[in-house]
Amino acid sequence: MRTQKILAAWRGLSNFERWAVFLWSLLLIVSAVRLIGSPDKHTVYPNFTEAASRWVWGSDLYATRGSYDFRYSPLVAIGFIPLLPLGNRIGGVIWCILSVTTLIAAMSWWLKQGTPEPISGPRRGILFLLMLPLTIGNIASDQSNALVLAFVLVAITAVQVDLFSLAAIAIVGAFLYKIYPLSLGLLLILIHPRKMSGRLLLFLAAGLLLPYFFQRPAYVTATYQHWIHYLTVEDRSTDGPGHAYRDLQFLLHDLSIPIVQQTYRLIELGTAAALALLCLIARLKHWPAARLHFFTLTLAVCWMTVFGPATESMTYLLIAPVVCWLLITTRLSLSSWTGYLYLLSYLLLLYPPFAGMFGHHSVLRTPRLKSIQPIAALLLLIGTLDDAVGTRGTERNRSSAGVR
Hints:
mainly alpha, 2 domains
């Protein structure tokens, strides 16, 4: 009976959706085989397991040693303790499967209920196919960005369907991994102050207090102190192009525009305030809920990447679903130049996986080309701001439901 249901569901898929299922499954299988064959190479998973071991034995989570570099919250380390007995091979595969399936489920829900307009089965399949090359690096190296993106998509979709507690939990889940997704939560508080503020503070406090139930209070307090110190002193702005963060500061240095760290921090805060003001203006103008939430999501992921405090190459996965959705829905209309901005943004995001095919010594891996990703995010931001005041946004207004 179950087999018949699966076959019926498969027959109901479009050809593009079938190709998406096949290729995403293939990516998962290849990544799992690769992790089993070399669990300690080309993957960050051993960082998670060593952090879990350090937590169990009460040692410093944030004392860097060799290739070990753990920067997440203590609760993340605790979450990997159940995987310790499985070893890095099996544990890494389970983590990979969890990340991929969670991301796929979150994207599916977001496409169904969290975007300004629904897309059909074939276009949904195309979107997953467009996402695939932008996801390969994260999945192959067992990065946490896929799970963080899943949390972000769940949060924005939950707000759209009035599940504000779930939205707050998702924001906190992303925060415990990367800190800066809290920016999305702050924007949502501006839009829904009564429904989001209390919930977000409550679940944020719960996420930060939970580690006290799993270790000695003195050790947990010291661990938080070390974490805060680690986050405040880490600065890659003076590192070489191979290790520096891929953000606006990297782009400015690439253009030979000098900027000191203090000035750049002011730029980060200033852009955050400006984007928050844009969201507030959109809310006060009573934008329809779907359009407002999508606009908020786009501004948030653009800030997290271009202006965020810790943007690596893999972090640009955060803008991938938005770019792909906009690319599909604009259909490159000749009357909308923003469609071509989105196309160019997507093509630039393809650079890292494409360059990786030619090895580390290829001309495609030169430092100057690493500024391509922040340019892609800036193009997305420019197109989004143009859409916010253009006729295409007005047309979407007519087809969307109002803000609740």
